[in-house]
Amino acid sequence: MTDGNSYADKFRRAFQNPSTMGLAILFVLLIVNVALQPDFFSRDILTSNFMSFTPLIFAALAQGIIILSGSVDLSIGATMSLYTIVAAKSMTDTNVALIVAFGLVITVMIGGFNGLLIGRLRLPPFIATFATSGVVLGSTILIMPTPGGYVPKFFYKAYRQDFLGIPMPLVILCCGLLLWFIVSRTAFYRHLYAVGGNEKAAFASGIKVNRVRLMSHLFAGIFVGLGGMCLLMLTASGEYRSGTAYSMNSIAAVVIGGIAMSGGRGNIWGAIVGALILGLLNNIIFFANVPSFYQNFFRGMIVIFSLTLGTLTRFKELKAPV
Fold first, then answer.
1. Cα 113 to Cα 321: distance, rounded to the nearest angstrom
2. Of 152, 153, 216, 270, whose CA is between 20 and 30 Å from 208?
3. Which pLDDT tens digit goes with each residue over 222-267?
4. pLDDT per position as a tens digit, 79-130
């Protein structure tokens, strides 16, 4: 009887865990995608999906790092758009590497600017990053009011090729994850959770809260830049609207993946799961030929469901006897 109850409790806790539910939702969407596309697991289809999913995965990774620290960033989408415009405006056949690096510097600088507003000036994250988003978006329209620019053919074609037998989007994603793996072995990683979980307690224990917030936005800027680069290679042009949806979609992916909006709870892998869920949901909407309204409808319902699970879990933890 004890073992049975123990297994039942474990199953119940797993069901209430937003991360576990994210994996369950991902599994269901995979089944639906296979039903709509019998060749879903073919190499060409998987490569095509990774091409379109990777920008959102990087945006979700960036948002996940920031939210874990107890902050949020509404300027991610506009910053990704700025990356594509600056690159498409400046690229030639001979300076691709320089412009790619320059774009990364810009996204990190914007992340640092947000970090200063939130960490040093103590501005509310929603307001500060919303204002930054407006400034960045206005800059993109000023630089390139209509889609265009020049992206070398060999550059965007590389996104559709393999490297050592591995699709290039997956190679770029693995490079980003390797960077995160290295960071996860540092004190910054532990401080990130401490600040997000309880800012006052972290400060009392000697953690420099302002610096952690600044570093989280700076580090997230690298992933925003990688997402902007993938978006540029995917679209092969610069456009101020190309990245705007990624701000809210990245937040949705983070929530679906089980990272608490209050910070300090969840893990970065959940952000990847959430991004894959949204990508697969978009596939279903497209191949089922249903109106685009349902894309936003189902995304909203999944976010509400994930938030509800997280809230119920926290509520039960608070009520549990010590």
1. 44
2. 270
3. 999 999 999 999 999 999 989 988 999 999 899 888 888 888 888 8
4. 999 999 999 999 999 999 999 999 999 999 999 999 999 988 889 999 999 9
| CB within 8 Å of 202: residues ≥ 6 apart | 191, 194, 195, 209, 212
Q: Is the dihedral of CA 168, 221, 232, 303 positive or negative?
A: positive
To the nearest 10 degrees (0 to 180), the angle between helices 96-115 and 125-143 is 150
Could you give the percent of the chain with pLDDT greater than 90? 52
Rounded Cα gap, residues 24 and 4, in angstroms: 23
Listing DSSP states for 42-70 in one string gives SHHHHHHHHHHHHHHHHHHHHHHHHHHTT
Give yes or no for a contact between 209 and 203, defined as CB atoms under 8 angstroms apart: yes
Residue-range domain boundaries for the chain? 45-243
Q: Collapsing DSSP states into helix, strand and coil, what is residue 94?
A: coil
Residue with tokens 């199953």: 11
CA dist 139 and 137 (Å) reads: 5
- Based on its alpha-carbon atoms, the radius of gyration of the chain, rounded to whole angstroms, reads 20
Check the CA dihedral 128-129-130-134 and report its sign: positive
